[in-house]
Amino acid sequence: MSYQYVEFDGASLPLFNHSQEHATMPAEATLLDSIGGGVYDWMGTERRRGRKQIISLTGVYFGEETLFSDDGTEDGSGDTLIWGDARESILASTSGLMGKRGRRGQLWRKRLNDDALEWKTARLLQVSWPRKWEDHAILAEMSCRFETAMDGWRAETETERTKALASDGFGYNWIVEVDTELTIDDAVITIAYGSGTLTAAYIYCPDLGVDIELTGLSVTSGSLIIDCGAQTVRNSAGTDIYSYFDLGTEHTARGWCPLPGGNHQFNAKVVGGTATATIAFYSQTA
Fold this sequence. Notes:
Elements: E1 3-8, E2 11-12, E3 16-20, E4 31-33, E5 39-41, E6 53-62, E7 66-69, E8 80-84, H1 86-98, E9 104-111, E10 117-128, E11 139-148, E12 153-155, E13 159-165, E14 174-178, E15 188-205, E16 210-219, E17 223-227, E18 232-235, E19 245-247, E20 262-281, E21 284-285
Antiparallel strand pairs: 1-2, 1-9, 3-6, 4-5, 6-11, 7-8, 9-10, 10-11, 10-12, 12-21, 13-20, 14-20, 15-16, 15-17, 15-20, 16-19, 17-18
């Protein structure tokens, strides 16, 4: 599968005559020395996720004149006018990228077989621009270095799976379909108020070892938002409600709600009223 880095935080990257590093994020070593002189793998059969990565690329911005016809036609019947020259084109491209140095934003890559876009949150660490006289006002060869803590590349759009929950009744047979290459550990679970007074909410998935509980509530509006990546629990007003949150006795998953690829049966319940449960996530690839 071929990819191309195309944009960072709204700034187009240099793509003419480009050279880009597309290695996957490295996993750190898990072998430790044992007292007996051997080694053991402290992660066992669990997948070791990456923690940080440097992404580098080099490419060229090419300055071009922008032309248009004074009568708005493309058949040559009007007079051709110069709208922008090569120097202005180069300046707009280079200053746009240079202004992002040190900033944190979305680094986008394009999958070349179908033009699908994917992103990681990254920080632009360095921009290198060696000047050569023969390139003056025509070409700008630039190199960039980014750093990221994201293991997988996220899909352009978020996927949502929802389930309507009746008062005091379990929402069985909530099949959550997850199309992903890497296990997702930053899903967001939302319990949106429907009616009554919600005093508790439960999310179960025995196959994944997920047992999430919210108790002691008194909710008559808004939503409860469980961010499994940031590990925060807030209401829709942004108020922290972590004190009502707990991982139940049947919770065995690493993290709060890891989602590997496949179809997973969740059970959900609210007490005291009705609600709608939503699991939102971005599919991920290496």
